[in-house]
Design goal:
Blueprint (H helix, E strand, L loop, with lengths): L16 H10 L14 E2 L11 H9 L8 H14 L3 E5 L2 H12 L5 E4 L4 H9 L3 E4 L20 H11 L6 E5 L12 H13 L3 E5 L3 H11 L8 H9 L4 E5 L10 E5 L13 H15 L10 H14 L2 H20 L12 E5 H4 L9 H13 L1 E2 L1 E3 L12 E5 L7 H16 L7 E5 L7 H4 L1 E4 L2
Parallel strand pairs: 1-10, 3-4, 3-5, 5-6, 6-7
Antiparallel strand pairs: 2-8, 7-8, 9-12, 11-12, 13-14
Helix pairs in contact: 1-14, 2-11, 3-11, 4-5, 4-10, 8-9, 12-15, 14-15
The protein binds ligand F0G.
């Protein structure tokens, strides 16, 4: 049941079919080139696109814009301590700024970093340090029909094999991304985090949790991990983070803000066995790097008002009505899409439904980008915008051909979900007519091509 009502509204409209056809052509069949005003239901990302609460807007007005030592920073620090259990926080302008501040001091050239699956910006920051980002997803994670409760888990056996290959001294950090965005938003169990902690202790590595969607993860833990069935969401949310030395956070996800992020770290006394990690030194080094790239460590690239809104948003994120509504809405979208005949990745994850475009458009071979073809048809049919995560975004990679439909938080209602499902059903109806696409212009960096490349239908 919806746990909020509208106080402020933003008009949206559905352009005519003729206009949508024209827009698609003018955008070079790339949804990133379409203006938001021409999109009816925008499921491009759940990052920074949600609605803030009245309390958050009130906090914006009270934000303290002092360069150093602002009251808003203290509010954020207290919220991070209460909600996430970390006593130290270094703010950043958004998640990737936090990644730069942390991985820039933690990772050196020639190192290897393990992750259940690196998100794009995480992978880029590790690679930017001259290090090797290695994914350790569990068996079945890349199978959209495999049924398991925690398909986001870190594969310990694979992690140990990599450590043996490259040498423990060359693995400074292990990252666990909860939920796992690069594996269809799948959750990670607390038991798995405990086991990764053991591995990190064995090799004296820093354990980092990418906590962008940590409350959605807690919801799945409560639902699926027996030990936690009677725990509150807030307690699980904190418990899962106790295994980490540090967390990277994008406020644009479960900070419920439109911008912002931070690195959270514990002080030494938190964990008796420090696993060889010098928490005091890490904090000092992250702070220094953050000054260079983000700003003074009490605002870190955010306006004081954004810091204030983030402090409130973090506390709202662990309230049960928010997260129940959130995860169940995503699940509802998944159910409706299935009913509409769209094959989807299952079970449905926390922030998005991932449509299996390879199965949806089986006539289109991988080289002709079935995922991007589906993105275009969803726009053409109903001005719905999603994002391709397959051959177009990751050329040459052996990956599933997925289209992600990410729901912004507290933004759309049931009518819009229905519209998305009807749109998918209409595309399914004429799937034989959908043609593949070919790239006609792309930027020099292949890793970034999906943001700006232009395409055309294959003859
Ligand atoms: N880590 C994860 C798991 C993410 O999903 C993102 C962003 C980041 C880090 C970086 O955070 O955008 O604030 O710099 N994901 C967005 C998405 C962009 O659409 O999935 P950021």
């Amino acid at each position: 049941m919806r746990s909020y009502k509208a106080k402020t509204v933003e008009p949206i409209s559905l352009p005519s079919r003729e206009k949508r056809n024209r827009i698609l052509e003018e955008a070079g069949y790339n949804a990133f080139n379409v203006d938001a005003a021409d999109v009816y239901v925008d499921l491009l990302t759940d990052s920074g696109t949600g609605a803030m609460s009245g309390e958050q807007w009130a906090a914006m007005m009270r934000g303290d814009e002092a360069y150093a030592g602002s009251r808003s920073f203290h509010e954020l620090r207290e919220a991070v301590a209460d909600v996430m259990g970390f006593s130290r926080v270094v703010p950043a302008h958004q998640g990737r700024g936090a990644e730069n501040a942390l991985y820039g001091v933690l990772v050196e050239e020639g190192d290897t970093v393990l992750n259940n699956a690196h998100f794009d910006t995480t992978r880029a920051h590790i690679a930017n340090q001259g290090a090797d980002p290695v994914d350790c997803p569990v068996e079945g994670a890349r199978d959209p029909t495999h049924d398991a409760p925690f398909k986001g888990n870190f594969d310990l056996a694979r992690g140990r094999t990599v450590v043996d290959d490259v040498g423990a001294e060359n693995v400074p950090a292990i990252v666990v991304t909860i939920t796992n965005n690069s594996t269809a938003g799948q959750p990670v169990s607390v038991e798995n985090l405990r086991q990764v902690r053991e591995l990190a202790d064995e090799i004296d590595a820093t354990l980092v949790v990418d906590a962008c969607r940590f409350v959605e993860n807690a919801y799945f833990v409560k639902e699926r991990e027996d030990e936690f069935a009677d725990w509150s969401i807030a307690d699980i949310a904190r418990e899962q983070l106790t295994y980490a030395d540090a967390a990277v956070m994008s406020g644009k996800k479960e900070g419920l803000t439109n911008i912002g992020g931070f690195v959270a770290m514990r002080s030494g006394e938190y964990r008796e066995d420090d696993g060889g990690v010098d928490h005091d030194a890490l904090f000092e080094r992250v702070k220094q790097r953050a000054i260079l790239y983000e700003g003074f460590p009490t605002y870190g690239g955010m306006a004081g008002r954004d810091v204030a809104a983030l402090a409130v948003g973090l506390r709202e994120a662990v309230e049960p009505p928010y997260v129940e509504d959130r995860v169940e809405q995503v699940r509802e979208l998944g159910d409706r899409l299935k009913e509409a005949g769209a094959p989807i990745y299952e079970p449905v994850g926390g922030h998005a439904v991932y449509v299996d475009a390879g199965a949806f458009l089986p006539e289109i071979p991988r080289e002709q980008l079935p995922g991007q073809a589906l993105v275009c048809e969803l726009y053409r049919e109903g001005a719905v915008r999603g994002v391709e995560l397959g051959e177009f975004a990751f050329p040459g990679a052996d990956r599933m051909q997925l289209v992600r439909l990410a729901l912004p938080r507290r933004t759309y209602g049931r009518e819009q979900l229905e519209h998305v499902a009807e749109t998918a059903a209409a595309v399914a109806e004429r799937r034989e007519e959908v043609s593949g696409l070919e790239v006609v212009a792309e930027p020099p960096m292949k890793e970034l091509r999906h943001f700006s490349a232009e395409l055309r239908p294959v003859e």
